[in-house]
UniProtKB/TrEMBL annotation:
Record-given protein name: TTLL3 monoglycylase
Keywords tagged on the record: ATP-binding, Cell projection, Cilium, Cytoplasm, Cytoskeleton, Flagellum, Ligase, Nucleotide-binding
Region (Disordered): 30-63, 211-241
SUPFAM superfamilies per UniProt: Glutathione synthetase ATP-binding domain-like
PANTHER family: TUBULIN MONOGLYCYLASE TTLL3
Length: 595
């Protein structure tokens, strides 16, 4: 105890226990009633932060009272606060918890009244922070929900232009909180504007198929085959399907008005002003759905073709997501109180559309991430669901990245770790190893089931690899960043990782942290390991999706077993060993920012 080498771990972290014991540290164990092999359920801290009524946290009974002994796992009597659902592969504690001679139990008993000097928990509320001494090391900060919840990140990044004069639209797909009236109205406008732009893109695509277009019906034989690519070609109309010549003119008028708004936009306007036109938007959207999703034809004159090209040739600073957003106007609806696609983990998941006249299907009312391409579906679902995690309208809706890079025709995302060791001054360490997570079925924008679109291990573990999946997709659906770099080199993009992806991920992480910095509960002696999730666009630009507090360390593959062990090892080097020896190895961590 005199050497200040007492630690407590809450949760299945055998690597942390083993590494600390190897350093000569003594574990002050939790009582058996509180350590019933709590499963690490991946990113559960974020789920709790989003469901609790007090975003400041720290109120109520503490799980771990450092002086009075550990309390049972009874933080709340509301079972909805801890819906521990099956998540990633359960991590075993085999060797680290083996204590055949009861030596560790004896040593733990001897330090039972001592304050732990190092505390590693699943979430901060497991510790009575009022009893912590200044030199105690804890692996969480308070009030990080400002950037580790979907709702918090959405709100914080809206403030970024005032803090850093940076545009979140260059790295974060535009996002709206549906529980806020102003943002709900802004989303409705965005959906309509995106539909208008998408219609012009579809019209140009058809004009490209038939450069000399007259009033004829498009050839049904053209473009009918559908392949699993990042942005499938629009299917042309079948013989006898209706044509909508007025739609293009209406879309052109809307886009012209919006362009005028963009050219006069200033920092005092958080969202574009509504384009007030005489268009019947309900009718326009229904006709757009016919064209975009049902293969109805379009008529485009040469003059209209030129106007479409001019309107869609916008500078990147005016509409940075123009290319990424694609042409099918797909959005992704996320309940604020869930993580890792939870609530969508079971069932067949073949829903692509919600009935318009009936109620929302019960399977879609369970809290979870849902892809949709109709405005009425989003609004109806947000109104109709009564799950505790989305009560109060705490949904966020975000533009789906339609033009994304796929590997062997399959969607993937990147889990990227980083550590914050100080908030005043902000000090950020980027981990130079990361991993990719694949979906179980080939990517397709025509089929929106979760097996094709949600890369989370907690979702994909429920699916077997599809028979039509490319056999080169790894069977465990995980790649290391080294494997990804080799793949990029085969595509002739050997420099993309170091010149585009890594700088882009670093910039996105720093912008997210700076946007929320004033809201985080700072404490000297704390640190936190985070996991940021990114998609990759066709142009190899990374798009930040979310940041997870307490990222899972449960290995779901050989790759994650190695990398998760390494990042835990290097985190201890960074926050413990480096204090005594600033020149010690910190493994794959790289200091990327210090104020």
């Amino acid at each position: 105890a005199q050497e200040k080498k007492i630690f407590t771990v809450q949760g299945p972290y055998p690597i942390i226990r083993r590494l600390l014991r190897a350093r000569g540290w003594v574990e002050r164990k939790l009582p058996s009633t509180g350590r019933q092999r709590e499963q690490h359920r991946g990113d559960q801290n974020k789920q709790w932060l989003e469901t609790r009524p007090n975003h400041g946290g720290g109120q109520g009974e503490a799980l771990l009272n450092p002086r009075g002994g550990a309390q049972p796992f009874l933080r709340t009597t509301d079972p909805q606060h801890y819906p521990w659902l099956p998540d990633e592969e359960e991590e075993e504690e085999e060797q680290c918890d083996e204590d055949p001679d009861s030596i560790h139990d004896l040593m733990s008993y001897l330090v039972r009244d001592q304050l732990p000097n190092f505390i590693w928990t699943n979430f901060l509320e497991a510790t009575d922070r009022q009893l912590l001494q200044q030199d105690n090391v804890v692996n969480h900060y308070a009030r990080v929900d400002a950037f580790t919840t979907k709702e918090g990140l959405c709100l914080s990044l809206q403030k970024l232009p005032w803090i850093e004069q940076a545009d979140p639209n260059t790295f974060f797909p535009r996002c709206y909180r549906l529980g806020t009236r102003d943002e709900r109205e802004a989303f409705i406008e965005d959906f309509r504007l995106t539909a208008a732009r998408s219609l012009l893109k579809l019209a140009l695509e058809e004009a490209g198929d038939m450069p000399v277009r007259t009033e004829q019906v498009p050839n049904s034989a053209k473009g009918t085959s559908e392949s699993h690519v990042s942005h499938p070609k629009h299917s042309t109309a079948r013989p006898g399907s209706p044509l909508y010549p007025e739609l293009v003119e209406e879309a052109l008028e809307v886009c012209k008005q919006h362009l005028g708004v963009l050219q006069h936009q200033d920092i005092d306007r958080s969202t574009p002003s509504p384009c007030r036109t005489c268009i019947d938007w309900d009718h326009f959207l229904q006709e757009y759905y016919h064209v975009a999703h049902e293969g109805a034809g379009l008529v485009l004159t040469r003059q209209q073709q030129k106007q479409c090209q001019d309107l869609l040739w916008l500078p990147a600073d005016q509409l940075p997501q123009l290319d990424m957003e694609g042409k099918l106007n797909i959005w992704i609806l996320k309940p604020g109180a869930e993580s890792q696609g939870r609530g969508k983990a079971g069932g067949s998941g073949e829903h692509t559309e919600v009935p318009h006249l009936g109620g929302v299907p019960l399977s879609l009312c369970s809290p979870g991430i849902i892809c949709t391409r109709r405005l009425e579906e989003v609004l109806q679902l947000a109104r109709s669901c009564t799950a505790p995690s989305v009560q109060g309208g705490r949904w966020v809706v975000q533009k789906y990245v339609e033009r994304l890079l796929t590997i062997f025709g399959t969607k993937f995302d990147i889990r990227q770790w980083f550590v914050v060791t100080d908030w005043k001054p902000l000090t950020v360490w980027f981990y130079q190893d990361c991993y990719l997570r694949f979906c179980s079925r080939p990517f397709s924008l025509c089929h929106l089931e979760r097996a094709r679109h949600l890369c989370n291990v907690s979702v994909q573990k429920w699916y077997k690899t599809s028979p039509d999946q490319d056999p080169r997709v790894p069977h465990d659906k995980i790649w290391s960043n080294k494997q990804f770099q080799e793949y990029l080199a085969q595509l002739g993009q050997a420099d993309a990782w170091h010149q585009l992806l890594v700088p882009g991920m670093k910039a996105a992480i720093l912008n997210a942290l700076r946007s929320a910095q004033d809201q985080v509960g700072f404490r000297k002696g704390s640190f936190e390991l985070y996991g940021a999730d990114f998609l990759v666009g066709e142009d190899c630009q990374p798009w930040l999706l979310e940041i997870n507090s307490c990222p899972t360390m449960s290995p779901s593959s050989a790759v994650t077993r190695r990398l998760c062990a390494n990042v835990q090892r290097d985190t201890l080097r960074l926050v413990l060993d480096r204090k005594d020896n600033p020149a010690c190895s910190i493994g794959a961590f790289e200091l990327i920012y210090k104020e």
